[in-house]
Every structure is written in structure tokens, then in C-alpha cells.
Amino acid sequence: MADTVVVTPTGRPAAGTLRVPSDKSLTHRGILLAVLAEGQSVIDRPLHAADIAASIRAARAFGAVVDVGPDRLVVEGPGIGQLREPADVIDAGNSGTTIRLAAGLAATVRGVSVFTGDASLRRRPMARVLEPLGRLGARALARGGGFAPFAIRGGALSGGVVELPVASAQVKSAVLLAGLAANGPVTVVEPLPSRDHTERLLARMGAQVRADGTRVTVEPGFLRPLTFTVPGDPSSAAFWWVAAAITGGQVVTPEVLLNPARVGLLDVLEEAGARVRVAVEQEAPEPVGTVSVTGPDRLRPVAVEGPAVPALVDELPLVAVLAALGHGTSTVRGARELRVKESDRIAAMAEGLGRLGARITEEPDGWTIVGPARLRGAVVESRGDHRIAMALAVAAAAAEGPTRIRGAEAVAVSYPSFWDALAETGTALVAPAR
Ligand code: S3P
User: Fold this and answer.
1) What is the reported pLDDT for 217?
2) What pLDDT shows up at residue 177?
3) Atom 15, ligand 1: which residue's CA is nearest?
4) How far does residue 96's CA lie from ligand 1's centre (Å)?
5) Whole-number pLDDT of residue 1
6) Domains contained in the chain, number
7) What are the catalytic residues?
8) Residues whose CB is less than 8 angstroms from the CB of residue 3 and which lie 6 or more positions away in sequence, other chains included
9) Residue 25 CB less than 6 A away from ligand 1
10) What CATH number does the domain containing 387 carry?
């Protein structure tokens, strides 16, 4: 894929049935949880993307044998207490989920594990995971007091209650994985509930996990191997839902994950006046179904506040796009976490949407957006962040004239076929920049 792509709107609404790539959060967990089960785990329809390659490297570093097929991953885990001390530094690339969940695995190893990542990941906060693991007895040394590269010496872990200052499924998961190897139950308390995929998969693997709102407790114990099929990623389907909403089109996305902790965007789309239809086709281990979104004649403004944030945290750049075209003033607040994602997403969207002509003001913890803007093609930057590249591409499809998106190759992190899929919706032409 070219570093810069040109998105030229066709003036036609986004339409069609789009099968989106498999869920990234679930594929990461399938691989990394399988390391803790002794025996063969089978993960059908995994996501194949750069972030997942990072989790496979981490699993192998701890002694798992991972066989990668086109539609199936087979992971032969060493099992709890038998992970190998990695022979080399684990490079998690751009993947926050890999480095933080694998830090939880490292806490179970009687030896030293060393982690690094790309320039973006080395700027992201790691004290939030190293401190809680430290409370269970793992020792950590990190650059600059809390950044990768860092080293963890794991081993004898004790149970206890760990309170997290920010809601984070990555940190919660790391603590739960370490807790399986502790000498007593481990409880994690979050300020708001975050996505619960780890709890659901651990229960399926035979772990004793109890969740009660913002408190989750795991008992130490062994895991059975895991067998499951990964549904489509709602965070990828979200681009097409919003594309339909802002172009007055209709898209259908079959077989997507519908975990309520992941699909908060659907409520915001309804608030904006879009018609949302959900048909649930499976309930366990995760709800899965078909979502169809139809754009209204006139978009209304929206308001997103702190408690709603965890269920749509990765979709907030798209909420900004939706808001830019809503008739009135929209607000997003309580989303300071966006500043420490793959890029500072508050600044990245304020800059990119601003260049396209949106009236967007950056706030410390979100944005104020006055719509509707008449968007015009411009030159915008992904800042190396997959979700920024894709959200700006959706905005560009509703603009007048072509937009050049720099850093377009970032989509490989979660949605390698994104540019083809955008063209498939019919709402824009996509070409590499000459
Ligand atoms: C993820 C959790 C979220 C999310 C990230 C994936 C996960 O991060 O933003 O893209 O798979 O657990 P936090 O745990 O930092 O909130």
C-alpha cells in the first residue's frame, strides 16, 4: 500500500453488505490466553493484521508453538507455571494490547522478560500496567519511569485487591492473567467497566472468574485449551456505519461482535438520527449478529460523556466525523484517554477534520464541534495511527473534491483491506498518490 492515498468522493451514498475483518481484541486474547493453557487451542477465523503478528511473536517467545493458517490458528501452550523465559526482547510493534497483556504473562515467569515497541508504543504509558503487576509481586524496571523498553522479573505472585486509576481492559486483563498464577484470589477494581472479553474467554477455559460491575475476581488455577470462532470487528464495521450515516446511505455488516461493552457507537448513531437495526444470531461466548445502518436526511448533534466512553473509546474519532456534519453543537467529554492511544487522537482529529473544514475545538478531554460543516478535500495526516487514517478517509468521502491521506499504510495494523472496502461502498474512489 502506498504511503499516501487519494480519496475522491463520488457523490453517491455508501451502500452494500460488507464483511469486516475479525475482531482484533478477541484474536489477541485467543492467542495470549492459549499460552496459559496446556495443550492445543484452536482459534477459527482469526484477524490477520500487523498487531496480531505481534501477539504471535510474544506467544512464541514464551514457548508456545503457533501454527498460522489462512482461517485458523493452532496454539500449543506451555501452560501456567511453565512459560519459558524469552530468549530475546519481545517487540510488540504498534500494539498496546500485545505489550500489556503479555506483561501479565511475563509476571508468571521466573525469569526476566524484556519488551519494546515502535516509536508510538514507546511513548505510551506502561506504569499503569507495571504498578498493578508489582503489587502482586512482579518486579519491573522501565525507561523514563514508565515507558518501554521495560523488563519484568516474575515468579512468586500473591493474591490481593488491585485498584486501577483508569478503566483499561488491557491492564485489567494483564492483572487477571497474572492472577491465575498467584497464591490466592486476585480482584481488579476499575472506575468504569471496560470490555470483558478476557473474563468471558477465561470462564470458557474453566477459570473461576466472578464479575460484578467494576470488580472482577479470578481464582488461581489451570486452564483448558480454548476453541472458538472470532466474529467480525465492530470497531472496523464502525467505519461503514458512519459512512452510511453521513452520506445518507445504507450498509449491512453481517457477523459482527455485539458485546455491549464494544458497540456504544450504535446509540450515538441513533441519537444522530440514523436508523440502526440489529439482529442477534449468537449469544455465547460473545453476542454476534448483523447490523444495518441507514443515514437520515438530516443529522442531529450528539453528546458523549465519560461513563459512555469505554464502550466506544476506539470509535470516538468517528463520532467527531459524525458531529462535524450534524446540525448543531456536539460535545465529547471525559475522553482524556484518547491522548495516549496510538497517537494523541484528540489533537489528530482536531487537526485533520479542521483541515477538511470542520469547526472543531480541541478540549483537554474531548472536542466541541459545531456543524454542519461543508467539508472540502485537503491534505491530512494519519500520524501513523490506523484509526485516524480510516476516520479521516470516511470524512473525506463526504467532502467536496479529493483528499490526500498521508500515512495511509497504518491501516495494516487492524484492517489491511480497508482501502479496497472503502471503494467497494461506492461512496469514494481510492488511488495511490502519484
Ligand atoms: C483494548 C482496550 C482499549 C482499546 C484498545 C484495545 C483491548 O484500550 O482502546 O484499542 O483489546 O483490551 P485500554 O485498555 O487502554 O482502554
Assistant:
1) 98
2) 98
3) 168
4) 7
5) 61
6) 2
7) 314
8) 406, 407, 408, 409, 433
9) yes
10) 3.65.10.10
pLDDT-based confidence at residue 273 (cuts at 50, 70, 90): very high
- Is residue 60 in a domain? yes
**Ligand 1 contacts CB of residue 32 (under 6 A):** no
Same domain, 267 and 197: no
Nearest to 226 by CA among 22, 82, 28: 28
Cβ proximity of 208 and 39 under 8 Å: no
The grid coordinates listed for 234 are 465492530
Is residue 226 in some structural domain? no
CB 202 within 8 A of CB 226: no
Nearest CA, atom 4, ligand 1: 314
Looking from the CA of residue 310, the nearest atom of ligand 1 is 16
- C-beta of 235 in contact with ligand 1 (< 6 A): no
Cα 210 to ligand 1 centre (Å): 21
The rounded percent of the chain whose pLDDT value lies above 70 is 100
Are 71 and 86 members of one domain? yes
Q: Is residue 376 domain-shared with residue 244, that is, in the same domain?
A: yes
Output the CA 169–ligand 1 centroid distance in Å. 6
pTM over 0.85: yes
Average pLDDT rounded to a whole number, residues 311-332:
98
Strands 186-189 and 215-218: antiparallel
Q: Contact, 314 vs 235, CB < 8 A?
A: yes
Residue 313 Cβ inside 6 Å of ligand 1? The answer reads yes
C-alpha 100 – ligand 1 centre gap (Å)? 10
Looking at the predicted structure, is the pLDDT value of residue 356 above 70?
yes
Q: Are 394 and 243 in contact (CB under 8 A)?
A: yes
- Domain residues for 328? 4-22+231-432
Last residue of a domain, one of 218, 245, 271: 218
Binding site membership of 55 for ligand 1 (Cβ less than 6 Å): no
